[in-house]
Amino acid sequence: MNIAVPVANEQLCMHFGHCETFALFRTDAEKQEIISEENLTPPAHEPGVLPRWLHEQGANVIIAGGMGQRAQQLFAANDIKVVVGAPTGNPRELVTAYLQNKLESGENVCDH
Length: 112
Hints:
This protein is of the alpha/beta class. Helices cover 23% and strands 28% of the residues.
């Protein structure tokens, strides 16, 4: 499983479209561990670009604080599961919590 996390200032960026980079974690879901981490600079944010680009990078899950409905649909169309409502925090810790089914997510902080 490959998990993408939008990052700004080394923390989860609450809106994926405004992030500085994406942390891409290659994981072993069975062992609930991170195998590797890579920080990627995304292309310019335009509708549909980031879901397609992350799919090309091998992501199949994205953890976000907030994301609009249209973006969620575009991620789903690119076979990427969307987890919204994640708290601000260290991306590695959020991914570890997700792998251990301990990630507490709240409300989607995006309303568009």
